[in-house]
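Researcher: Quick test of sequence recovery. Tokens follow.
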């Protein structure tokens, strides 16, 4: 088994005033040669955006982009949709940049901060037609059980959003003392686990709020919740 521990305090951090950004991997002006990516997972940003502020129109190409709001109101607009799309906590947004896309993301609230995760996954197909989708998920459906949010566009998995990569993105909220037995899809996959809140134990490693652990070269493992905990699990090929 290979294990990578990323403590919350050791993430890259940028304070732009309107944006407080934590980077699990090298991004923008933050660079760490030991934190370039985890397999096909290239970016995991933990952002807090001030009211009415956000990212102006900017381009992306050949990247699968997944956004998960945790609190507040996210508004998105791209050159495929002239109207603003609203994404709320409980919803997930996916965007295949493919041959190229221009989009904007803003905090849609005048008085509440927006907290979100943005994930970039390296695609297994280049120059695909750009696409956008979003879906709402109930918190009850991840209570002590895996809730699958995103899978490969080639998988016949009902209820999940789709991207161009053999990836499984999921969430689970574990009650204290509950255990999750996690089985990876194949020996070629690894899983990067972000602890959104709480405290868990994996192979005697304690993972607290906003700590993360990357696990590969293993078929299955156990996660014990030492407190009520919420986890984001990103399983990717170890390219």
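Model:
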């Amino acid at each position: 088994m290979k294990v990578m521990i990323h403590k919350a305090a050791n993430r890259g951090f940028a304070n732009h005033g309107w944006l407080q950004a934590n980077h699990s991997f090298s991004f923008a002006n933050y660079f760490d040669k030991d934190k370039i990516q985890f397999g096909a997972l290239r970016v995991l940003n933990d952002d807090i955006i001030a009211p009415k502020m956000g990212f102006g129109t900017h381009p992306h190409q050949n990247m699968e982009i997944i956004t998960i709001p945790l609190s507040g109101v996210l508004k998105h607009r791209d050159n495929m949709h002239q109207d603003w799309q609203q994404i709320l906590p409980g919803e997930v947004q996916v965007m295949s940049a493919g041959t190229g896309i221009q989009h904007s993301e803003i905090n849609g609230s005048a008085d509440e901060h927006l907290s979100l995760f943005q994930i970039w996954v390296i695609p297994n197909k280049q120059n695909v037609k750009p696409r956008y989708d979003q879906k709402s998920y109930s918190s009850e459906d991840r209570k002590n059980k895996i809730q699958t949010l995103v899978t490969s566009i080639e998988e016949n998995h009902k209820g999940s959003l789709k991207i161009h990569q053999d990836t499984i993105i999921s969430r689970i909220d574990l009650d204290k003392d509950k255990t999750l037995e996690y089985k990876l899809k194949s020996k070629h996959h690894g899983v990067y686990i972000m602890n959104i809140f709480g405290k868990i134990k994996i192979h005697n490693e304690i993972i607290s709020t906003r700590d993360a652990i990357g696990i590969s070269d293993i078929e299955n493992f156990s996660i014990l919740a030492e407190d009520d905990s919420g986890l984001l699990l990103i399983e990717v090929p170890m390219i």
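The chain has a mean pLDDT of 97.
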